[in-house]
Amino acid sequence: MESKTDAGPASMTNEELAAIEDEEVLNKMLDKATDFEERRVIRAALRDLLKKKRDKREQDRGSRQQDLRQQGLSKGGTIGGAVSIGRASMNQLPPTNKPPGQSSASAGSKASPAVASAQKCPPAVAPNLKNVKQMLLDWCRAKTEPYEGVDIQNFSSSWKDGIAFCALVHRFFPDAFEYSILNPNKPRENFQLAFNTAERLAGCPPLLDADDLVRMNEPDWKCVYTYIQEFYRCLVERGLVKTKKRP
């Protein structure tokens, strides 16, 4: 007997979609949906689910902090400051969480990391680069569409806080980390999380360096493009992306 989820979103009510608590199930339904209205309904259900998870996590965190305070373990708000902040409040955060001198200091132990990073980004000179580049950009935009705080318009400034990288990786590996607690004011941590997860679960080589990226006003589009192209190919090799045309 065919289940509700197998029957497709067109035969499901908003209440039935809202009752689905598995993010991966909604992602698969979104990938299969072709009708605009179906995709709109699934995206709304997916956003509601992410918000529900975020609110639940914030509620649990508040309860834990209150318990710690009652036990005398919270000292001057240190615990609260050490906890990652939910996506709902990220837009109000000041950019002071990213000291300008921090990346330079951490890079001092490396030998010309910026040069090494530049060598990893070959110039894109393929004749059909424009078409392939746009196809890959459209793919990234479609896969990250349900994610809050992500608006991919290019391969440079749209990726500078690391959130877009995390959203793209999280789309294929939703159990790897909690997207809702990521902080756009901590780009280095976001870059490292995305690259490490992609390497560990997809076998994608770490072509980009987090320290190099945070030193740039905007990432080099050729570097980002090369990395995303490699990530895509790794997904195809593992059967996580099924397509006849490969960027």
Description:
The protein is mainly alpha-helical and 247 residues long. The protein contains twelve helices and no strands. Helix 9 runs parallel beside helix 10. The model is unreliable at 1-5 and 73-119 (pLDDT under 50). InterPro entries: CH_dom, CH_dom_sf, F-actin_Monoox_Mical, SMTN. Residues 89-102 have a biased composition (Polar residues). Residues 103-114 have a biased composition (Low complexity).
Which features does this protein show?
globular, disordered N terminus, single chain, 247 residues, mainly alpha
Structural class: mainly alpha
Q: Please, what is the average pLDDT?
A: 75
Name the assembly state: single chain
What's the helix-strand series?
HHHHHHHHHHHH
- Range of strand content: under 5%
- Total helix count? 12
Overall shape: it is globular
How many DSSP-defined strands?
0
Evaluate the radius of gyration: 20 Å
Distance between the termini: 39 Å
Helix content: 55-70%
Largest sheet: none
Poorly predicted runs of 5 or more residues = 1-5, 73-119
Biased composition (Polar residues): 89-102
Keywords: Coiled coil, Phosphoprotein
Region (Disordered): 49-114
Biased composition (Basic and acidic residues): 56-67
